[in-house]
């Protein structure tokens, strides 16, 4: 059993390769950070560090948290790398679970070449030897926020603008694709022929195919329209990549630089890595790496309707549109999981529980927001293998933690 506090860089006892088994070789941190430095329910803002508090004083069940954490530490839920729980702006629980990915991935291959080889433990899930964790498709939620900021600043037209207008330098194989509205790119209802519902290890997956090419957006724009836009949810990572190209085309700035100026710095995110797609634009589909507590800053910003310490960073109406379901994920479940502007609505508000929305990154990246309870959580992980099946962290959090929350 090894322990490392998030505030400490010291790891006690040898680490890499210490434990191994047939299914999981892992380094596990199983000591929780349960703090008692604050107890009032008024929301506070993080400066360089978050304020820490005791879970029970903020209406959370410490035993429920500890039981879930113990299961994670024992590997019951696969490779969950961290769990952070924040209420009223205070960190109530923050723990890392460290696994030996180099050992786990011996002999495994991914169909994409570097740098998109997700079994390369030098590059994923952590960027090199840092604690910056791959967010995968949570990058899309960040990209959406940047689009909202850009529209409010006048750097982009509104969501009725079309791909043909926003990407005038591009060639479109099907002229109908030129008419796809920005609104429908944001809500994954563009209507462009795309298959991303099969395994990412399969070359039937268009996202995997596009990663092997030199121009991801070019591949997208070579596809035909097959469904009327705005009518069907069809998850499409290359369309999110188009958002990055749209922003850079309009502003003359790389997406990551625009993010630094107008999003990251204002909320205190000082360190990140954001890789670049082959065509030269910031990888908005899945290329952002952040620390878990910095991802929590982004989640907390949304929980506060786009306001950070009194400053409106993201327009409140954009936040509202982002987290409102525009389309059901499953057409036959209109009241089930929904999708907004690159955000997932995991639970609609019902008599049995509050609304919960968040981002969703392949492998287990989940910034989760429960507005009614002033509660957020961040999970990171690397459950990417097809031969295992674990419960999603958003389900675990909602069923085990959210349903146990009481006042304040």
Describe this structure in words.
With about 400 residues, the protein is an alpha+beta fold. The protein has twelve helices and 14 strands. Helix 3 (about 140-155) runs parallel beside helix 8 and helix 3 crosses helix 9 (about 255-265). The longest helix is centred in the middle third of the chain and has 16 residues, at about 140-155. The radius of gyration is 21 Å and the shape is globular. Residues about 1-5 and about 5-40 have low confidence and may be disordered.
Protein traits:
14 strands; 408 residues; alpha+beta; disordered N terminus
Give the helices and strands, then pairings.
Elements: E1 51-52, H1 62-73, E2 80-87, E3 90-96, H2 101-104, E4 133-134, H3 138-153, H4 163-166, H5 182-186, H6 206-211, H7 216-221, H8 237-251, H9 255-264, E5 273-274, E6 288-290, H10 292-303, E7 307-308, E8 311-312, H11 316-322, E9 327-328, E10 338-339, E11 344-347, E12 356-358, E13 366-370, E14 375-381, H12 393-401
Parallel strand pairs: 1-3
Antiparallel strand pairs: 2-3, 2-14, 4-6, 5-6, 7-8, 9-10, 10-11, 11-12, 12-13, 13-14
Helix pairs in contact: 3-8, 3-9
Adjacency order of strands in the biggest sheet: 1-3-2-14-13-12-11-10-9
User: Per DSSP, what share of the residues sits in E-state strands of 2 or more residues?
Assistant: 5-15%
What is the arithmetic mean of pLDDT?
90
Instruction: Give the total of beta strands.
Output: 14
Q: Strand count, sense and closure of the main sheet?
A: 9 strands, mixed
Question: Over all CA atoms, what is the radius of gyration?
Answer: 21 Å
Alpha-beta classification: alpha+beta
Low-confidence stretches: 1-5, 7-40
Order of helices and strands: EHEEHEHHHHHHHEEHEEHEEEEEEH
The first-to-last residue Cα distance is: 34 Å
Helix content: 25-40%
Gross morphology is globular
Number of helices: 12
